[in-house]
Amino acid sequence: MNEEAEWRTWHLSGLKVTQLRLDFQFHLHMWSLERDLLITFGTPFTLRSPEGEVKTFHPEQSVSLCPLLSLMHRPVETFAASSMGECMLRFEDGFELHGVPHESYEAWESHGTGELEGASLLCGIGTGSPWG
Fold first, then answer.
1. Model-level pTM greater than 0.85?
2. Cα(58)–Cα(73) distance, rounded to whole angstroms?
3. How many helices and strands, by DSSP H and E, does the chain display?
């Protein structure tokens, strides 16, 4: 059976990346007084440029994450998650971060407040909807 993914999208206009944190995961925080969104990648994820170039990053290899420092203070446009466990953070300049499920680990999670509270999701092990 070939199931088509359902996507849910949250609009982030007016927000920008306010904090990056590196440990064995990669965390991006977008914050304002009214709402915020924290996205954490725990397994490999990709960055796609507006021209279609794709680079893969491994959160446990913190030195390899240096190119992602350029995301600091970058305005964001949308965050989306699919019923198949994928996620995408789109920046206003066309760059996109993508996370996909992992067969052994929770690949990504997001925590939102205010109008972004519904974007509090967890990508479980394997495929499946992060909203239950």
1. yes
2. 22
3. 0, 11
What are 44-57's pLDDT values in tens digits? 999 999 999 999 99
Helix (H) or strand (E) segment spanning residue 45: strand 45-48
Nearest to 15 by CA among 37, 33, 30: 30
Distances from the Cα of 95 to the Cα of 41, 52, 70, 100, 125, angstroms? 17, 9, 11, 17, 26
Segments making up each domain of the chain, as ranges: 10-122
| 129 or 37: which leads in pLDDT | 37
Residue whose C-alpha is closest to residue 101's, from 2, 5, 1, 37: 5
Strand 76-82 to 87-91 pairing: antiparallel
- Please measure the distance between the N-terminal and C-terminal CA atoms of the chain and give it in whole angstroms: 20
Q: Which two tokens mark 46?
A: 């990709």
The mean per-residue pLDDT over the stretch 8-35 comes to 96
